[in-house]
């Protein structure tokens, strides 16, 4: 009975994080972009520092009519938002946030699980683009597929490097094996992982598949109301997952600087929040990459860097073991 209660408590905690954190990231993005770009709405909506902006957005999406195009594959069209969103809930179950088994479910091959399930989320965009019966949506879906193929490989290679360094595929095991001198040694792999993750989330400057000025928001052109809101929620949930994974794999997770590990989950949360700010800052700062630039970055820069990181990891492991 106690085991069942413990499992239920962990799942409820993961579900609460899944419901709350993406909304917090969305509200934070409103505020950060408002300050950086002088946007009035998120600064003043509702009075005190624009607290009502997120509420206004939610009401706007809820009251919009739910439209399915006449020529669309109705079932696939309606299923796509759930396919885009739910994988991130499953990934959160396997991400450790603190010591002493503070994880929804510890998996021996956790790093394989989270990367495989994150890849499934991109299928939601492909399904939306194909099922919408719209040439702009289809073009956006095809760009999504090309981007996934290009950036999945460097992301996997970078994660393989840190798994090789730790000697385990378990996410809690990787954190347990972490030492602070890994940060300068694995920093290249961390940057490759984070950059490839941004591209898989189609976040600026890697948002060519949803280029609103060219293909009218890509695969999501025909979506309205709450279905469109679910795609946006999937994007923010993906930011939470990517930042949490980067902090776990490359920044020591719950380990604090100078041996200050007593705060546990608070260090993981702090690192995740800082990385989420970086995601928002990149959106405001850099222009969108062209499709050829996007592909060139993956195949000629990120993949060679990831392979070099694996080579360096192998050399360091041999030197340490000898």
Characterization of this structure:
It is globular and about 65 Å long. The protein starts with a helix and ends with a helix. The longest helix has 36 residues, at 2-37. The mean pLDDT is 86. It contains 13 helices and no strands. α9 (182-200) runs antiparallel to α11 (225-250). The protein has helices at 2-37, 41-44, 53-63, 74-94, 110-121, 123-131, 135-166, 171-177, 182-200, 212-215, 225-250, 265-285, 291-321. The chain is mainly α and 322 residues long. The protein is 72% helix and 0% strand.
In short:
The protein is mainly α. The protein is built from 13 helices and no strands.
Give the arrangement of secondary structure elements:
Layout: H1 2-37, H2 41-44, H3 53-63, H4 74-94, H5 110-121, H6 123-131, H7 135-166, H8 171-177, H9 182-200, H10 212-215, H11 225-250, H12 265-285, H13 291-321
Helix pairs in contact: 1-4, 1-11, 1-12, 3-11, 4-5, 4-6, 4-11, 6-7, 7-8, 7-9, 7-13, 9-11, 9-13, 11-12
Counting copies of identical and different chains, the oligomeric state is single chain
- Tally of separate helices: 13
- N-to-C order of helices and strands: HHHHHHHHHHHHH
Shape: globular
What percent of the residues sit in helical stretches (DSSP H or I)?
over 70%
Mean pLDDT: 86
Determine the structural class based on helices, strands and strand pairing: mainly alpha
Gyration radius, rounded: 20 Å
What portion of residues belong to β-strands? Answer: under 5%
Total strands: the figure is 0
Which sheet architecture does the biggest sheet show? Answer: none
Runs with pLDDT <50, length 5+? none
End-to-end Cα distance: 49 Å
């Amino acid at each position: 009975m106690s085991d069942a209660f413990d499992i239920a408590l962990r799942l409820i905690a993961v579900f609460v994080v899944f419901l709350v954190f993406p909304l917090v990231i969305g509200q934070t993005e409103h505020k950060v972009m408002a300050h950086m770009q002088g946007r009035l709405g998120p600064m003043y909506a509702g009075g005190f520092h624009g607290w009502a902006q997120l509420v206004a957005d939610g009401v706007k999406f809820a009251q919009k009519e739910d439209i399915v195009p006449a020529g669309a594959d109705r079932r696939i069209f309606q299923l796509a938002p759930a396919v885009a969103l739910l994988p991130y809930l499953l990934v959160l179950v396997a991400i450790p946030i603190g010591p002493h088994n503070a994880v929804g479910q510890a998996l021996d091959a956790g790093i394989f699980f989270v990367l495989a399930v994150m890849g499934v989320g991109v299928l939601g965009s492909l399904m939306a683009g194909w099922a919408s019966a719209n040439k702009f949506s289809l073009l956006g879906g095809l760009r999504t597929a090309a981007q996934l193929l290009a950036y999945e490989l460097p992301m996997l290679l970078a994660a393989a490097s840190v798994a090789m360094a730790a000697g385990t595929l378990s996410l809690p095991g990787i954190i347990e094996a972490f030492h602070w001198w890994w940060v300068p040694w694995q920093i290249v792999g961390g940057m490759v992982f984070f950059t490839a993750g941004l591209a898989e989330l189609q976040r600026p400057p890697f948002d060519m598949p949803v280029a609103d000025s060219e293909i009218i928001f890509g695969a999501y052109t025909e979506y309205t109301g709450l279905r469109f809101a679910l795609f946006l929620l999937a994007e923010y949930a993906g930011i939470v997952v990517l930042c949490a994974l980067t902090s776990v794999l490359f920044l020591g997770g719950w380990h604090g600087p100078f041996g200050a590990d007593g705060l546990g989950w608070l260090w993981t949360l702090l690192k995740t929040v800082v990385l989420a700010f970086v995601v928002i800052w990149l959106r405001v700062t850099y222009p969108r990459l062209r499709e050829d630039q996007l592909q060139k970055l993956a195949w000629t820069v990120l993949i060679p860097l990831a392979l070099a990181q694996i080579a360096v990891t192998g050399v360091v492991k041999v030197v340490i073991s000898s």
